[in-house]
Specification:
Blueprint: H1 5-18, H2 28-50, H3 55-67, H4 71-79, H5 90-100, H6 109-121, H7 133-160, H8 181-188, H9 201-211, H10 218-226, H11 229-236, H12 241-256
Helix pairs in contact: 1-3, 2-3, 2-7, 3-6, 4-5, 5-6, 6-7, 7-11, 8-9, 9-11, 11-12
The structure holds fe (ii) ion (FE2).
Fe (ii) ion (FE2) binds at residues 68-69, 90, 122-123.
């Protein structure tokens, strides 16, 4: 039977990614991006489901997750880097590709627009304040789902030592360098930490910690707490009262503050490594 809707789009994505194989397999970093896309798609589905979205909206959320990094593949082939600053904005590139292949042609215009908008906004530092609610919730969803997977990828890679083999993903940071006082100050004052200011893996991990305050979905808090992210971050960073306080505060924040998008049944999220 001919595939339609989401399965057809999944097929397109598989075939599109396969065109970037070199020899029998994808380059290592593109394989990571492909795996990331699948996990982010699942994260989107989980967050949307546990926030009480309709079946159709859950499927749209899944597609946003699957397609959000479509631009990464041609970016890497052309520039051999994932640095947008020195290559191309991968979100803009992704939209160009989705449009040029007419990937979403079977979906109604409203769903198409939501997916395009959410993909195009997923890597913005800050979301525009004027976003309409339907777009804002998909934009927040993909940003949460993306972060949840980045927590996993970075912390797992630290734990198993593979972080040293992924300089592209850690921005060629000094893996053994000290934590910079500026980064710590930003964390204490709950100010955004810019990629440009981080110098070491310690700084990157503090940046991850600061992201906890940006999570918009209660279901994200649940996933991050289940995955023990604040504890894992604490165990990586150097000793110090300020770090202790920062990690505890982030955990407390998730347990006590209400999120922008509540979960309908926050305790029902299946135990999964976020
Ligand atoms: Fe991305």
């Amino acid at each position: 039977m001919k595939k339609k809707g989401a399965p057809l789009i999944e097929c397109w994505f598989e075939r599109y990614v396969a065109t970037f194989a070199e020899g029998a397999s994808l380059p290592f970093l593109l394989q990571l991006k492909y795996d990331h896309s699948l996990r982010v798609a699942e994260n989107c589905r989980t967050l949307a489901h546990h926030s009480g979205w309709s079946d159709e909206d859950v499927e749209t959320a899944y597609l946003v997750g699957l397609l959000h990094d479509t631009g990464r593949f041609s970016q890497f082939r052309e520039y051999r880097t994932f640095f947008d600053r020195v290559s191309v904005d991968h979100a803009v590139r992704g939209i160009e590709i989705l449009r040029s292949f007419n990937v979403l042609h079977e979906l109604p215009a409203a769903r198409r627009r939501l997916i395009h908008e959410a993909v195009s906004l997923h890597n913005r530092k800050i979301l525009p304040a004027t976003l309409k609610p339907p777009i804002a919730r998909y934009a927040c969803l993909i940003r949460d789902a993306d972060k949840i997977d980045i927590f996993k990828v970075v912390l797992d890679a630290i734990d198993d030592g593979s972080i040293a083999r992924m300089p592209e993903l850690t921005f060629h940071l000094d893996l053994k360098g000290p934590l910079s006082p500026d980064t710590l100050t930003c964390l204490r004052e709950r100010k955004a930490i810019a990629y440009e200011q981080i110098r070491s893996l310690n700084d990157l991990v503090v940046l991850l910690l600061s992201w906890i305050y940006e999570l918009a979905f209660e279901a994200s808090h649940e996933l991050i707490l289940r995955a023990q992210v604040p504890d894992r971050i604490r165990s990586f960073l150097p000793p110090g009262d300020e770090i202790d306080t920062g990690c505890r505060a982030a955990g407390e924040w998730m347990r006590t503050r209400s999120a922008v998008y509540p979960a309908v049944c926050p305790k029902m999220i299946p135990g999964q490594g976020a």
